[in-house]
Design goal:
Two copies of one chain form a homodimer. Chain A is of the alpha+beta class. Chain A is built from ten helices and 13 strands. In chain A, helix 2 runs parallel beside helix 6, helix 4 crosses helix 5 and helix 6 packs antiparallel against helix 10.
Chain lengths: ~325, ~325
Amino acid sequence: MGEFDLLARLRERLPPPGGRVRLGIGDDAAVTVPGGATATSVDAFVDGVHFRRNRQSLEAVGRKGLSVALSDLAAMGASPGEAYVTLGVPPDLDEDGCLEVLAGVAAIAAATGTVLAGGDVTRSPVLALDFAVVGHAAAPEDLVTRGGATPGDRLVLTGELGGAAAGLLLLDRPELGRSLPDGVAGGLTRRLLDPAPRLAAGAALAAAGARAMIDLSDGLGADAGHVAAASGARLVVDLSSVPLAEGVAAVAAATGAGALELASGGGEDYELLAAVPPQRVGAAIEAVTAAGTALVEIGEVAAGEGVELRSPDGGLIEPRGFDQLR
Amino acid sequence: MGEFDLLARLRERLPPPGGRVRLGIGDDAAVTVPGGATATSVDAFVDGVHFRRNRQSLEAVGRKGLSVALSDLAAMGASPGEAYVTLGVPPDLDEDGCLEVLAGVAAIAAATGTVLAGGDVTRSPVLALDFAVVGHAAAPEDLVTRGGATPGDRLVLTGELGGAAAGLLLLDRPELGRSLPDGVAGGLTRRLLDPAPRLAAGAALAAAGARAMIDLSDGLGADAGHVAAASGARLVVDLSSVPLAEGVAAVAAATGAGALELASGGGEDYELLAAVPPQRVGAAIEAVTAAGTALVEIGEVAAGEGVELRSPDGGLIEPRGFDQLR
């Protein structure tokens, strides 16, 4: 089946464009009327690099691909607007398989209020999705970069960490899950395979006055390092304050990994880390909680550079990226 | 080398963002202030599908990738704004190779006034580029879709056709070029490997009142079919009016292909086909010529559906896509 047929079949399954999107899939380009400021991010999602095709359904691949792309908009505090998807189709993926991937993309689009406004289809040696996502804000000053963390700011974190890293360990060694309470192992693998972009929390943090923000794709240590570098400041994290997802400690103990290493070095939790002026922390916690997500203080911004991860025993943990854990 | 290093090195080589782009490469997302309407298109450019890596320099791969993506904006009559590139890096491409590809992308960005505002880097089995390009217009009505062709409109074409298809034949059989005048074979292969997006011509056609427009990536017959389908009209093309690139007739004769088949079935010429009301044809020709590109009338829009390609002897040629020629 050709590109045109596949995109036409996708279009049939989508709600008609409206509002900001004047023309969706099917022409040389989509036409939108943005108004205000836009945040635009591109994100690749490639079999063997970002996921493994045999680990989840094709629909789950599409779901996670778009969720991860939208997480970058959450990290800007942008309101999700449009998504454009390029589907690289390997020789062994048939039309139904393509539609299953795209159904996952469409489901996350619908769940987040994102319009699938355009796409491209190409042959590819492996299943590969590329996303361009566009978010909106009233003005550029309303969007939160990585570069505004200021000494004295408090560091706040949404949700819980370590779940995706523990989920990855469980996929490799499912027997570890048998000693966990009912549903916990499934919850951890879902954290890895079906993360939710923290869009509402990101918007709430932006509105509450966050000065810098990032989503945790590479791991707390590595991503805090990106904020430190962009802001020209030092980020000091108290790891004893970091909430762990349920079951992370047990999985860590069973595998000999440290729970705090999983939480700080494991990536793909897609929680948000933000720097907030001290006098705005209360409002930020209230707003993010109202948006349905927990927010806790985990440290502070200091003068200097780099990242300091303080363990509960007073020692320091080396900030590491997720790739080193795999 | 990691994604961050590569994007940082790319950023060093780019002019600083300005104007509409408030924040470029290096954060979770780029920040722009569009104003008016935007045209957004995504385009994959994959080794073994859209190009073959051994056929041209890595810089030429980057050049053509972005040019082809921008051609979709030309077809909307949009002014080029921002480009976002995802680079899929195969195991045998080193850092210098990546930078050579990106240098080609950056050269076309600079030549067209496009800001490279974001990117992603991933491992990939083959060299693969994915582009998202954003063009601008004062209002959505200023952008030209495929869907407005109206019976009575005249069909106009920029430039010359058949060059890219003849260039492909020459790459496979370089000995055919020896009988051509000096420089002609090189010109034909350049048409294939380094096409120029018709941005100025597209903008001129939009301003002159074009009612439908498309860029010829799949071939005149196939792309006219897309306009016919989107417009609910019949496109009648007089092939004797279609200008052929220099050398196309000779290459066609030497290979046994028909010159008109190359011009109508060969794709990748990236010229523009537009439907223009009869009373605007003169103004369109004047405006496009002033923009540095020839524009000729090659047919008309009629009631009905589909495409009719009339050959000079009065017969009809079957509209075919480029894939069938390869």
